[in-house]
Amino acid sequence: MEDKIKEAADFLKHSRFTTAFTGAGISVESGIPSFRGNGGLWEKYDPKILDLQHFLNDPAGSWVVIKQIFYDFFGMAKPNAAHLILARMEKEGMLGRTITQNIDNLHQEAGTTIISEFHGNSKKLTCLICHRDYHAGHISLDHFPPTCIECGGILKPGFVFFGEAIPQLPLAEAYEAASLSDVVLIIGTTGEVMPANQIPFIAKEFGATIIEINPEPSAYTDRITDIFLQGKAAGIMLKLEKQLFPAPLNDDQDRVD
User: Fold this and answer.
1) Over the stretch 206-230, which tens digit does the pLDDT of each residue have?
2) pTM of this prediction?
3) Which residues are marked as active site?
């Protein structure tokens, strides 16, 4: 493993443009379970709660469960070492863009600024009538459904529901990053969710080196991955950090390892 870590770090050090591509696995160590697989949220909750038509038919009932998952439970999560190290890489000019399938806002809380959110962000609420946006922290979730202070319309979480299209801006940004990348760093995604899962394949077609961090092999591992670093995101990223930077991340930053 140490040889693979050094090899991966060498590619990252010499890359002119690196893209990080992250999924639910990067946030597991922050206390956020994945949706799919053993122990995933869909074992406890019915996925239809995030179906757009179901939400429109029963916004109050949908919001009861949505609040439990995304605002009570997810709201306690903090960035872990993997999020913080990616933010450091961006700050040091070693990371050109982060593309994430996550909606938990942990990349931004860690300090990442150049980010494309394929599936939106739970911290934003949008009025279905006048389309005004709100920060979730500024809206009371004591009654369901929450409503717009301007027009009284129902507020919907700012992430993509089943039945909704991927926003065009992050899609365009992701395709551009894939075409520019010398290295794509995959972290915590199995590669099952369309169309986001196509980004590493596109990058590979443009000649990118694929470095993958996952606890188990994914849909990428045997097809396009060049360096497979098997393990949890935070632990592997801490090892990479030691190779990339002469000094560790400042210990006074709040981080979950």
Assistant:
1) 999 999 999 999 999 999 999 999 9
2) 0.91
3) 119
